[in-house]
Amino acid sequence: MAGQTWLAYTFAGVMLATAAYCLSRLVISWRQRRRTDRQADAVHVLMGVAMAGMLVPALRVFWAGGWEVIFAGTTAWFGWLAVREHRNRAALGRSHPHHAQHALGCAAMVYMLAAAGPAGRAAAGAGTGASGMGGGGARFSTLALVFAVVLLGYVVVTADRLPALARVGAVAAAGPGAAGPGAAAGPGADVGFGAGWGTPLSPRLAACCEIAMGVTMGYALILML
After folding, report:
1. Contact, 27 vs 196, CB < 8 A?
2. Which of 15, 100, 152, 202 would disulfide-bridge 218, Cβ 3.0–4.6 Å?
3. Whether 186 contacts 17, CB under 8 Å
4. Structure confidence by residue, pLDDT tens digits, 117-140
């Protein structure tokens, strides 16, 4: 199954825009000393740039195998955080497996880079603008299907939870980790900055980044079947 070139460029553009927005979240939260999920924002910056390079090989950066090393490390990191989150889920009051979602996304990145790497690197070396994800034939294609189904499932869950996410005013008064997309709104949550869509640090906009990432990665994984 080969993807359309225009669609690959569209998704690549969305990924670069998402990476730029998440980078702005990191800068703004640091300058204003506001608590946000900086780990998630940082990995979204990396994912956005890497996904753009996989979809459009001309945009690929880093040396061959560099992204695999980076995402293997982030998979281990978020996997450890997911285990800790699971053990402390009662104290955190969070039912949504926030770190597990990021661990899965990082693991999917490792798989895509390893499975489609040779074809993508060849296209990049030739200087073509064609998508590096098309053509199918990836090793362990069943694993690609599993990743795609679970990631798109997370997209549905995240989209369903958007109205319940905390507003920025509530996040500013909460403790560390409360700014993640798993933080729910409570009474008086609209005191402070106003509506949850109204600032660059909105948890709802952060959740939209997760949705964009999940849809794009699902699309890329389906192309590999």
Report:
1. no
2. 152
3. no
4. 555 444 444 444 455 565 555 567
